[in-house]
Amino acid sequence: MPSNYDVVVAGGGTGGFGAAIGAARSGARVLLIEKYGFLGGAATNSNVLAFCGLFQHGGETAVPAVAGASDMLMAELERLGQDTKPRQNSKTGNWIVLLEPERLKLAMDRCLAEAGVETLLHARTSDVAAMDGSLGTLTVEAHEGPLQLSAGAFVDATGDAHLARRAHLPSADASDSRELQPYTAPIRVGGLPPGFQFDRSALAKAVVEYNKSGAYPIHRPNGGFFAPIQGSDDIWWMVIDLPCKSATSAELSEAERYTRAAANDYIAMLRDVQPDAAKAELVQTGPQVGIREGRHCLAEEEIVADDLSSGRQRSDGIARAAWPMEDYVRLGKADYTHVGGAGFAHVPMGAIRARGVKNLFLAGRTIGADRQAYASVRVMGTAFATGFAAGVSAANHQDGDRAIVEKITSMGGLI
User: Fold this and answer.
1) What SS3 state is found at 313?
2) What distance in Å separates the CA atoms of residue 373 and residue 298, rounded to the nearest whole number?
3) Is 177 helix (H, G, I), strand (E, B) or coil?
4) What's the whole-model pTM score?
Protein backbone atom coordinates (compact mmCIF):
# COMPACT_ATOMS: atom_id res chain seq x y z
CA MET A 1 0.00 0.00 0.00
CA PRO A 2 1.55 3.36 -0.98
CA SER A 3 2.17 5.79 1.87
CA ASN A 4 1.44 8.95 -0.10
CA TYR A 5 -2.05 10.00 -1.20
CA ASP A 6 -3.76 13.00 -2.66
CA VAL A 7 -6.58 12.79 -0.09
CA VAL A 8 -6.92 10.80 3.15
CA VAL A 9 -10.42 10.50 4.63
CA ALA A 10 -10.83 9.56 8.30
CA GLY A 11 -14.16 7.87 9.06
CA GLY A 12 -16.26 5.44 7.04
CA GLY A 13 -19.80 6.62 7.71
CA THR A 14 -21.92 8.42 5.14
CA GLY A 15 -19.81 11.58 5.43
CA GLY A 16 -16.59 9.67 4.86
CA PHE A 17 -18.13 7.62 2.06
CA GLY A 18 -19.33 10.80 0.33
CA ALA A 19 -15.91 12.42 0.76
CA ALA A 20 -14.03 9.44 -0.65
CA ILE A 21 -16.32 9.26 -3.69
CA GLY A 22 -16.12 13.03 -4.27
CA ALA A 23 -12.32 13.03 -4.10
CA ALA A 24 -11.97 9.93 -6.28
CA ARG A 25 -14.31 11.34 -8.94
CA SER A 26 -12.01 14.37 -8.99
CA GLY A 27 -9.15 12.10 -10.04
CA ALA A 28 -7.43 11.94 -6.64
CA ARG A 29 -5.65 8.94 -5.13
CA VAL A 30 -7.77 8.39 -2.03
CA LEU A 31 -7.40 6.39 1.17
CA LEU A 32 -10.33 5.97 3.58
CA ILE A 33 -9.52 4.94 7.16
CA GLU A 34 -12.15 3.29 9.38
CA LYS A 35 -11.79 1.99 12.96
CA TYR A 36 -14.33 -0.83 12.54
CA GLY A 37 -14.06 -3.82 10.20
CA PHE A 38 -16.91 -2.44 8.09
CA LEU A 39 -18.27 0.84 6.75
CA GLY A 40 -21.63 2.52 7.25
CA GLY A 41 -21.24 4.60 10.40
CA ALA A 42 -24.23 4.74 12.73
CA ALA A 43 -26.35 2.66 10.34
CA THR A 44 -24.11 -0.36 10.81
CA ASN A 45 -22.31 0.28 14.10
CA SER A 46 -25.27 1.65 16.08
CA ASN A 47 -28.31 -0.03 14.50
CA VAL A 48 -29.68 3.30 13.20
CA LEU A 49 -31.38 1.71 10.22
CA ALA A 50 -32.65 4.71 8.29
CA PHE A 51 -31.23 7.42 6.08
CA CYS A 52 -32.71 10.77 7.14
CA GLY A 53 -32.19 13.99 5.21
CA LEU A 54 -32.07 12.65 1.66
CA PHE A 55 -35.37 14.39 0.94
CA GLN A 56 -37.13 17.59 1.86
CA HIS A 57 -39.82 17.56 4.50
CA GLY A 58 -43.48 17.04 3.70
CA GLY A 59 -45.36 16.96 0.43
CA GLU A 60 -47.17 14.13 -1.28
CA THR A 61 -44.01 12.96 -3.03
CA ALA A 62 -40.42 12.98 -1.86
CA VAL A 63 -38.31 15.88 -3.20
CA PRO A 64 -34.56 15.06 -3.30
CA ALA A 65 -32.20 17.24 -1.27
CA VAL A 66 -29.04 15.17 -1.81
CA ALA A 67 -27.34 13.69 -4.87
CA GLY A 68 -23.89 12.57 -5.94
CA ALA A 69 -22.33 9.82 -3.83
CA SER A 70 -25.72 8.85 -2.39
CA ASP A 71 -27.07 8.09 -5.88
CA MET A 72 -24.24 5.67 -6.53
CA LEU A 73 -24.89 3.89 -3.23
CA MET A 74 -28.66 3.71 -3.75
CA ALA A 75 -28.15 2.11 -7.16
CA GLU A 76 -25.87 -0.54 -5.65
CA LEU A 77 -28.29 -1.21 -2.81
CA GLU A 78 -31.05 -1.78 -5.35
CA ARG A 79 -28.82 -4.25 -7.22
CA LEU A 80 -28.45 -6.09 -3.92
CA GLY A 81 -32.23 -6.29 -3.53
CA GLN A 82 -32.70 -3.40 -1.10
CA ASP A 83 -35.91 -1.42 -1.45
CA THR A 84 -34.74 2.21 -1.46
CA LYS A 85 -38.16 3.77 -1.91
CA PRO A 86 -38.59 6.66 0.57
CA ARG A 87 -41.26 6.27 3.24
CA GLN A 88 -43.05 9.15 4.89
CA ASN A 89 -43.71 9.26 8.61
CA SER A 90 -47.42 10.07 8.86
CA LYS A 91 -46.92 11.99 12.12
CA THR A 92 -43.89 14.12 11.28
CA GLY A 93 -44.06 14.32 7.47
CA ASN A 94 -40.38 13.36 7.27
CA TRP A 95 -39.17 11.08 4.47
CA ILE A 96 -36.71 8.28 5.30
CA VAL A 97 -35.13 5.32 3.54
CA LEU A 98 -35.08 2.15 5.66
CA LEU A 99 -31.92 0.05 5.63
CA GLU A 100 -30.66 -3.48 6.07
CA PRO A 101 -27.13 -3.21 7.53
CA GLU A 102 -25.45 -6.18 5.82
CA ARG A 103 -26.49 -4.99 2.37
CA LEU A 104 -25.29 -1.49 3.24
CA LYS A 105 -21.83 -2.74 4.27
CA LEU A 106 -21.41 -4.67 1.03
CA ALA A 107 -22.79 -1.87 -1.14
CA MET A 108 -20.32 0.62 0.33
CA ASP A 109 -17.43 -1.81 -0.21
CA ARG A 110 -18.39 -2.23 -3.85
CA CYS A 111 -18.95 1.47 -4.55
CA LEU A 112 -15.60 2.50 -3.10
CA ALA A 113 -13.77 -0.26 -4.97
CA GLU A 114 -15.47 0.77 -8.22
CA ALA A 115 -14.40 4.39 -7.63
CA GLY A 116 -10.80 3.31 -7.00
CA VAL A 117 -10.76 4.26 -3.32
CA GLU A 118 -8.40 2.30 -1.09
CA THR A 119 -9.96 1.37 2.25
CA LEU A 120 -8.01 0.61 5.43
CA LEU A 121 -10.24 -0.99 8.08
CA HIS A 122 -9.33 -1.77 11.71
CA ALA A 123 -7.31 1.45 11.81
CA ARG A 124 -7.63 4.92 13.26
CA THR A 125 -5.59 8.10 13.34
CA SER A 126 -3.34 8.50 16.37
CA ASP A 127 -1.24 11.55 15.51
CA VAL A 128 -0.82 14.14 12.78
CA ALA A 129 1.94 16.61 12.11
CA ALA A 130 1.14 20.18 11.13
CA MET A 131 3.55 22.72 9.69
CA ASP A 132 3.06 26.18 8.21
CA GLY A 133 -0.72 25.96 8.55
CA SER A 134 -1.10 22.61 6.78
CA LEU A 135 -1.39 18.99 7.85
CA GLY A 136 1.34 16.69 6.56
CA THR A 137 2.30 13.31 7.98
CA LEU A 138 -0.43 11.21 9.55
CA THR A 139 0.20 8.36 11.98
CA VAL A 140 -2.39 5.59 11.74
CA GLU A 141 -2.66 2.89 14.39
CA ALA A 142 -3.30 -0.23 12.32
CA HIS A 143 -3.79 -3.79 13.51
CA GLU A 144 -0.12 -4.56 12.83
CA GLY A 145 1.18 -1.34 14.38
CA PRO A 146 1.67 2.33 13.46
CA LEU A 147 1.77 3.42 9.82
CA GLN A 148 3.07 6.73 8.50
CA LEU A 149 1.01 8.31 5.72
CA SER A 150 1.09 11.64 3.95
CA ALA A 151 -1.42 13.45 1.76
CA GLY A 152 -2.03 16.73 0.04
CA ALA A 153 -5.36 17.15 1.88
CA PHE A 154 -7.43 15.44 4.56
CA VAL A 155 -11.10 15.04 5.43
CA ASP A 156 -12.29 14.59 9.01
CA ALA A 157 -15.48 12.52 8.86
CA THR A 158 -15.00 10.84 12.24
CA GLY A 159 -18.11 12.32 13.83
CA ASP A 160 -16.19 13.64 16.83
CA ALA A 161 -13.44 15.65 15.10
CA HIS A 162 -10.89 12.98 16.03
CA LEU A 163 -8.46 13.98 13.29
CA ALA A 164 -8.80 17.70 13.99
CA ARG A 165 -8.23 17.19 17.69
CA ARG A 166 -5.15 15.07 16.99
CA ALA A 167 -3.83 18.09 15.10
CA HIS A 168 -4.53 20.28 18.18
CA LEU A 169 -6.85 22.55 16.22
CA PRO A 170 -9.14 25.04 18.00
CA SER A 171 -11.96 23.29 19.83
CA ALA A 172 -15.66 24.11 19.76
CA ASP A 173 -16.75 21.54 22.31
CA ALA A 174 -20.36 22.25 23.18
CA SER A 175 -20.06 19.90 26.15
CA ASP A 176 -18.20 22.64 28.04
CA SER A 177 -21.40 24.65 28.39
CA ARG A 178 -24.33 22.28 27.86
CA GLU A 179 -25.35 18.68 27.44
CA LEU A 180 -24.98 17.23 23.97
CA GLN A 181 -27.74 15.65 21.91
CA PRO A 182 -28.64 12.42 23.77
CA TYR A 183 -27.43 8.94 22.99
CA THR A 184 -29.80 6.53 21.28
CA ALA A 185 -29.73 2.74 21.24
CA PRO A 186 -32.07 1.10 18.71
CA ILE A 187 -32.95 -2.54 19.26
CA ARG A 188 -33.36 -5.31 16.69
CA VAL A 189 -36.26 -7.55 17.75
CA GLY A 190 -36.83 -11.07 16.42
CA GLY A 191 -39.09 -14.01 17.20
CA LEU A 192 -42.18 -12.24 15.84
CA PRO A 193 -44.65 -13.74 13.35
CA PRO A 194 -44.61 -12.49 9.73
CA GLY A 195 -46.46 -9.20 9.30
CA PHE A 196 -46.56 -8.55 13.05
CA GLN A 197 -48.10 -5.21 14.07
CA PHE A 198 -47.83 -3.77 17.56
CA ASP A 199 -50.93 -2.75 19.45
CA ARG A 200 -49.99 0.86 20.18
CA SER A 201 -52.60 1.32 22.87
CA ALA A 202 -51.49 -1.81 24.72
CA LEU A 203 -47.84 -0.83 24.41
CA ALA A 204 -48.46 2.66 25.80
CA LYS A 205 -50.19 1.13 28.83
CA ALA A 206 -47.29 -1.31 29.29
CA VAL A 207 -44.85 1.61 29.29
CA VAL A 208 -46.83 3.33 32.05
CA GLU A 209 -46.79 0.16 34.14
CA TYR A 210 -43.11 -0.49 33.51
CA ASN A 211 -42.14 3.05 34.51
CA LYS A 212 -43.76 2.63 37.92
CA SER A 213 -41.03 0.27 39.10
CA GLY A 214 -38.75 -0.55 36.15
CA ALA A 215 -35.04 0.10 36.56
CA TYR A 216 -34.65 1.75 33.14
CA PRO A 217 -37.35 4.40 32.63
CA ILE A 218 -38.77 4.69 29.11
CA HIS A 219 -38.90 8.29 27.92
CA ARG A 220 -41.14 7.65 24.91
CA PRO A 221 -44.68 7.27 26.28
CA ASN A 222 -46.02 5.88 23.00
CA GLY A 223 -43.47 3.07 23.06
CA GLY A 224 -41.11 4.48 20.47
CA PHE A 225 -40.68 4.02 16.73
CA PHE A 226 -41.01 0.69 14.93
CA ALA A 227 -40.11 -0.30 11.38
CA PRO A 228 -39.64 -3.62 9.54
CA ILE A 229 -36.16 -4.79 8.57
CA GLN A 230 -35.95 -6.00 5.00
CA GLY A 231 -35.06 -9.62 4.40
CA SER A 232 -36.38 -10.82 7.75
CA ASP A 233 -39.37 -10.74 10.08
CA ASP A 234 -37.33 -8.67 12.56
CA ILE A 235 -38.42 -5.25 13.78
CA TRP A 236 -36.30 -2.14 14.31
CA TRP A 237 -37.30 -0.51 17.59
CA MET A 238 -36.13 2.96 18.67
CA VAL A 239 -37.03 3.36 22.33
CA ILE A 240 -33.84 4.04 24.33
CA ASP A 241 -32.56 7.58 24.88
CA LEU A 242 -29.85 8.56 27.36
CA PRO A 243 -28.41 11.94 28.35
CA CYS A 244 -25.01 12.75 26.87
CA LYS A 245 -22.98 15.13 29.00
CA SER A 246 -19.41 14.63 27.80
CA ALA A 247 -19.10 11.65 25.39
CA THR A 248 -16.05 10.41 27.31
CA SER A 249 -15.05 6.75 27.34
CA ALA A 250 -16.19 6.44 30.95
CA GLU A 251 -19.62 7.88 30.16
CA LEU A 252 -19.93 5.77 27.01
CA SER A 253 -19.02 2.65 28.98
CA GLU A 254 -21.84 3.30 31.41
CA ALA A 255 -24.23 4.01 28.53
CA GLU A 256 -23.31 0.70 26.86
CA ARG A 257 -23.97 -1.28 30.04
CA TYR A 258 -27.21 0.59 30.66
CA THR A 259 -28.60 0.02 27.16
CA ARG A 260 -27.88 -3.71 27.18
CA ALA A 261 -29.70 -4.13 30.48
CA ALA A 262 -32.56 -1.85 29.41
CA ALA A 263 -33.02 -3.71 26.12
CA ASN A 264 -33.31 -7.00 27.99
CA ASP A 265 -35.99 -5.50 30.26
CA TYR A 266 -37.93 -3.99 27.36
CA ILE A 267 -38.06 -7.26 25.44
CA ALA A 268 -39.50 -8.95 28.53
CA MET A 269 -42.11 -6.18 28.73
CA LEU A 270 -42.86 -6.59 25.02
CA ARG A 271 -43.68 -10.30 25.44
CA ASP A 272 -46.54 -9.34 27.72
CA VAL A 273 -48.02 -6.66 25.44
CA GLN A 274 -49.96 -8.99 23.14
CA PRO A 275 -50.19 -12.76 22.69
CA ASP A 276 -48.37 -12.99 19.32
CA ALA A 277 -45.34 -11.21 20.80
CA ALA A 278 -44.84 -13.95 23.39
CA LYS A 279 -41.72 -15.25 21.61
CA ALA A 280 -40.10 -11.87 21.03
CA GLU A 281 -36.35 -11.97 21.48
CA LEU A 282 -33.48 -9.52 21.48
CA VAL A 283 -31.51 -10.09 18.28
CA GLN A 284 -29.06 -7.20 18.54
CA THR A 285 -28.03 -3.98 20.20
CA GLY A 286 -25.18 -1.93 18.87
CA PRO A 287 -22.43 -2.93 18.15
CA GLN A 288 -22.20 0.39 20.01
CA VAL A 289 -24.56 2.94 21.45
CA GLY A 290 -25.70 5.58 18.96
CA ILE A 291 -23.89 8.89 19.39
CA ARG A 292 -25.90 11.82 18.08
CA GLU A 293 -23.25 14.39 18.97
CA GLY A 294 -19.56 14.13 19.77
CA ARG A 295 -16.84 16.72 20.06
CA HIS A 296 -16.35 19.56 17.61
CA CYS A 297 -13.56 21.64 16.15
CA LEU A 298 -13.93 25.18 14.89
CA ALA A 299 -14.75 25.69 11.23
CA GLU A 300 -14.16 28.88 9.26
CA GLU A 301 -17.93 29.50 9.38
CA GLU A 302 -21.02 27.99 10.97
CA ILE A 303 -24.37 27.29 9.44
CA VAL A 304 -26.83 28.73 11.96
CA ALA A 305 -30.45 28.23 12.91
CA ASP A 306 -31.58 31.36 11.08
CA ASP A 307 -30.08 30.00 7.86
CA LEU A 308 -32.30 26.93 8.15
CA SER A 309 -35.47 28.60 9.38
CA SER A 310 -35.29 31.09 6.49
CA GLY A 311 -34.11 28.55 3.91
CA ARG A 312 -31.12 30.76 3.13
CA GLN A 313 -29.45 30.17 -0.23
CA ARG A 314 -26.05 31.56 -1.11
CA SER A 315 -23.49 31.62 -3.91
CA ASP A 316 -20.89 29.73 -1.86
CA GLY A 317 -23.30 26.95 -0.90
CA ILE A 318 -21.79 23.48 -1.30
CA ALA A 319 -24.69 21.26 -0.15
CA ARG A 320 -28.36 21.38 0.79
CA ALA A 321 -29.60 20.87 4.35
CA ALA A 322 -33.28 19.91 4.40
CA TRP A 323 -33.91 17.80 7.51
CA PRO A 324 -35.77 19.72 10.25
CA MET A 325 -33.83 20.88 13.29
CA GLU A 326 -34.59 17.78 15.36
CA ASP A 327 -33.58 18.76 18.87
CA TYR A 328 -33.82 16.12 21.60
CA VAL A 329 -33.53 18.68 24.39
CA ARG A 330 -36.14 16.54 26.16
CA LEU A 331 -35.26 12.85 26.40
CA GLY A 332 -37.38 10.78 24.04
CA LYS A 333 -39.12 13.82 22.57
CA ALA A 334 -37.86 15.62 19.46
CA ASP A 335 -38.69 19.29 19.01
CA TYR A 336 -38.90 19.97 15.28
CA THR A 337 -38.22 23.30 13.58
CA HIS A 338 -38.71 22.93 9.85
CA VAL A 339 -36.52 24.42 7.15
CA GLY A 340 -38.10 27.47 5.53
CA GLY A 341 -37.94 29.05 2.12
CA ALA A 342 -37.82 26.50 -0.69
CA GLY A 343 -37.46 23.67 1.84
CA PHE A 344 -33.67 23.61 2.05
CA ALA A 345 -30.80 25.84 3.10
CA HIS A 346 -27.28 25.98 1.74
CA VAL A 347 -24.36 24.76 3.83
CA PRO A 348 -21.63 27.38 3.24
CA MET A 349 -18.15 26.54 2.01
CA GLY A 350 -16.66 27.81 5.27
CA ALA A 351 -18.56 25.19 7.28
CA ILE A 352 -16.51 22.37 5.74
CA ARG A 353 -13.14 24.06 6.22
CA ALA A 354 -11.34 23.62 9.53
CA ARG A 355 -10.19 26.88 11.06
CA GLY A 356 -6.46 27.38 11.29
CA VAL A 357 -5.29 24.86 8.69
CA LYS A 358 -5.30 25.04 4.91
CA ASN A 359 -5.84 21.43 3.87
CA LEU A 360 -8.29 19.90 6.37
CA PHE A 361 -11.94 19.63 5.38
CA LEU A 362 -14.91 18.59 7.51
CA ALA A 363 -17.75 16.22 6.68
CA GLY A 364 -20.92 14.97 8.33
CA ARG A 365 -21.24 15.63 12.05
CA THR A 366 -17.95 17.55 12.21
CA ILE A 367 -18.98 20.54 10.06
CA GLY A 368 -19.38 24.02 11.50
CA ALA A 369 -22.88 24.54 12.92
CA ASP A 370 -24.49 26.23 15.88
CA ARG A 371 -26.45 24.16 18.38
CA GLN A 372 -29.82 24.30 16.62
CA ALA A 373 -28.48 23.93 13.09
CA TYR A 374 -26.41 20.95 14.22
CA ALA A 375 -29.65 19.17 15.14
CA SER A 376 -30.46 19.24 11.40
CA VAL A 377 -27.14 18.77 9.60
CA ARG A 378 -26.00 15.83 11.77
CA VAL A 379 -28.22 13.31 9.93
CA MET A 380 -26.84 10.77 7.46
CA GLY A 381 -28.46 12.20 4.35
CA THR A 382 -26.92 15.62 4.84
CA ALA A 383 -23.62 13.91 5.72
CA PHE A 384 -23.55 12.38 2.22
CA ALA A 385 -23.82 15.89 0.76
CA THR A 386 -21.29 17.65 2.99
CA GLY A 387 -18.94 14.68 2.62
CA PHE A 388 -19.16 14.78 -1.18
CA ALA A 389 -18.44 18.51 -1.12
CA ALA A 390 -15.54 18.04 1.33
CA GLY A 391 -14.01 15.34 -0.88
CA VAL A 392 -14.24 17.45 -4.02
CA SER A 393 -12.83 20.43 -2.09
CA ALA A 394 -9.96 18.39 -0.69
CA ALA A 395 -9.01 17.06 -4.12
CA ASN A 396 -9.15 20.58 -5.58
CA HIS A 397 -8.04 22.60 -2.56
CA GLN A 398 -5.80 24.87 -4.65
CA ASP A 399 -8.85 26.08 -6.61
CA GLY A 400 -11.11 28.99 -5.74
CA ASP A 401 -14.56 28.62 -4.20
CA ARG A 402 -16.49 29.25 -7.40
CA ALA A 403 -14.52 26.59 -9.29
CA ILE A 404 -15.11 24.04 -6.52
CA VAL A 405 -18.85 24.75 -6.42
CA GLU A 406 -18.99 24.22 -10.18
CA LYS A 407 -17.10 20.93 -9.88
CA ILE A 408 -19.45 19.63 -7.17
CA THR A 409 -22.39 20.33 -9.46
CA SER A 410 -20.73 18.90 -12.58
CA MET A 411 -20.01 15.64 -10.73
CA GLY A 412 -23.62 15.17 -9.67
CA GLY A 413 -23.85 17.04 -6.39
CA LEU A 414 -27.13 18.82 -5.71
CA ILE A 415 -26.67 22.45 -4.69
Assistant:
1) coil
2) 15
3) coil
4) 0.96
